[in-house]
Amino acid sequence: MFKKILIANRGEIACRVIKTAKRMGIATVAVYSDADANALHVEMADEAVHIGPPPASESYLLSERIVAACKETGAEAVHPGYGFLSERASFCTALEKEGIVFIGPKPRAIEAMGDKIESKKFANEAKVNTVPGHIGVIADADEARKIAGEIGYPVMIKASAGGGGKGMRIAWDEKEVRDGFDRARSEAKSSFGDDRVFIEKFVVEPRHIEIQVLADAHGNAIYLGERECSIQRRNQKVVEEAPSPFLDEKTRKAMGEQSVALAKAVDYQSAGTVEFIVDKDRNFYFLEMNTRLQVEHPVTELITGVDLVEQMIRVAAGEKLKIKQGDVKLSGWAVESRLYAEDPYRNFLPSIGRLTHYRPPQEGVSDGVTVRNDTGVFEGSEISMFYDPMIAKLCTHAPTRMEAIDAMAEALDGFVVEGIGHNLPFLSALMQHPRWRKGDLSTGFIAEEYPDGFHPALPDNKEKAVLAAVAATAELLRRDRLDRLGGRLAPHSGRLKKDWVARIGGDYLAVSVADGMTNGSIDCIISVDGGQTQQVCSDWRPGELIWRGSVGNTDVTAQMRPILNGMRISWRGLSVDTRVMLPNMAELEKLMPVKLPPDTSKMLLCPMPGLVVSIAVSEGQEVKTGETLAVVEAMKMENVLRAERDLVVSKINAEPGDSLAVDAVIMEFA
């Protein structure tokens, strides 16, 4: 077994590999760029080597610097994680030349399966069902348009060396093919240094289901069940689960056996994933093989009890698999939510900045439920524009799917992140979505259910009552504390009064408190809007970010953020401003005028921090609805900004190459 390994990656996956290596008694070496000098993976590793400036092309993607770091530290093997150099055969070959072991498959398998065009050719030869399409290199947009017409719309344009949703576009007509081809090539070039793309048929109402395989150097190969990855946004996975709620045992076995056959055909050695598109009739088509560890591997580990990183290390060290196919048992259900630095209220555009608060839920096992959080950050960490926006992967495991989903909902409600925009509100709301809970999924789920983007849902009457009870008890406890700190405040606090009004968003609800606080904690009887009385209990204290307790028969985990004269409460995807006051104050407040936001309708604002790639118009130009105004890149994704109506450009305030902050004015209109 190896004595020391180097992790050629960063963030949560580097931390994840380090944890297993430490458990196995293997010393670890981290590598880091200038941007990651104070990163968590650097702190966790036994040694760390600086490899260059923040851009990945000048640090994490330079194989010669990884090899040099191995020589400097005496690392015997390299685990590549995912992304960066994980599927680059030349990197594997460079390590082998220096006598350093690559913890992953051999170059032949990477070359055969890592390139999407070549993998499709190989799969066809191996009699694996593939999606209809053109799997050769496409020269230009005109050829792409011709090929798309022959295949039949809709089509998917995909980067050959792509991954993570980058370099992918769906086209429904000729115009979208031309635009999508250019954008896909540009993103592919920027992200992977390879601008080749191919085109295949886009399966309508597809499910994205993948099979985890594990193989050694002695001819042994097994599959460890499947993962459902259909909840995607911009072709990037957001929520995964294992097993799939859609597959039956017959289909699972067929997909698994086909995946193992493909792995054996390329002499695969390590953990890998064979991805399939599955239609509504459970017909499945080979999509690609990822010759690396997948982001979503934790859900497979949770339902099988197999540490995939450990198995990768053991296989790389020459050991035989000790697990037989008959030993693989799927136990319970696991769900993974990817926490991204993306603002759901701005159409999920990237957000950067410092994590002023970062407090994940407690990991561990309780009452048959497991909570796991794979992360690479800590409170005070900086989320930069140079890398993937993923902050953490929150996982829950329970005996049944509904129990795992409910556990995830509670864990998300208790996950505190402040300082940047993030998708926690969306993930929390998703856990309550009837279609998700039913398991009626497709890769178009988010686009279908949120066609106009994600907006906070309005609470129903029952939810308003719960929020009013939480807000009222929090305010009464605050007043109770003031009274205890200074008796002179008591005559003015209203602490002993029975009747209150809670403003929940724009609604005013009468709140009646039958019993007060006990020993400075929340334990009282409350009635909201004349409804049934309910007992409210919580150990919450003023200043705490999480309110945990019960309102009647409803268990509540809510986040509490102070605002002017009130509290913003976030719960189950809801985020509501609340204020609790005496009835006469409420009547006066209703008479106050509402301040309107400034008019920005004649400006194009930068929707996220990013780099201006291009400006498509000039001052004085008349543009039509839908025409491209500018392209802004953030976290390696190009975002096309289009005109929302016919207008005339009066002033342009930015130029290509400018680095802009969120809401910076790119151009103005007459």
Number of helices: 18
Approximately how much helix is present in the residues? 25-40%
Total number of strands: 40
Give the low-confidence spans.
489-494
Strand order of the largest sheet: 14-13-10-11-12-15-23-21-20
Radius of gyration: 27 Å
Q: Please state the structural category.
A: alpha+beta
| Biggest β-sheet description | 9 strands, antiparallel
CATH domain class of the largest domain: Alpha Beta
CATH architecture of the largest domain: 2-Layer Sandwich
**Mean pLDDT across every amino acid position:** 92
Any idea of the CATH topology of the largest domain? Answer: D-amino Acid Aminotransferase, Chain A, domain 1
Tell me the β content: 25-35%
Layout of helices and strands, plus pairs?
Blueprint: E1 4-7, H1 11-23, E2 27-33, H2 40-44, E3 47-52, H3 63-73, E4 77-79, H4 89-97, E5 101-102, H5 107-114, H6 116-125, E6 133-134, H7 141-151, E7 155-163, E8 166-171, H8 174-192, E9 197-201, E10 207-215, E11 221-233, E12 236-242, H9 249-265, E13 270-278, E14 284-290, H10 297-304, H11 308-316, E15 333-340, E16 342-343, E17 349-350, E18 353-354, E19 357-359, E20 364-366, E21 369-375, E22 382-383, E23 390-398, H12 401-413, E24 416-418, H13 424-430, H14 434-438, H15 445-449, H16 461-485, H17 490-493, E25 499-504, E26 507-513, E27 522-528, E28 534-538, E29 546-551, E30 554-563, E31 566-571, E32 574-581, H18 583-589, E33 603-605, E34 610-615, E35 622-623, E36 628-634, E37 637-642, E38 647-652, E39 659-660, E40 665-669
Parallel strand pairs: 1-2, 1-4, 2-3, 4-5
Antiparallel strand pairs: 6-9, 7-8, 7-9, 10-11, 10-13, 11-12, 12-15, 13-14, 15-23, 16-17, 18-22, 19-24, 20-21, 21-23, 25-26, 25-32, 26-27, 27-28, 28-29, 29-30, 30-31, 31-32, 33-40, 34-36, 34-39, 35-38, 36-37, 38-40
Helix pairs in contact: 4-5, 5-6, 7-8, 12-13
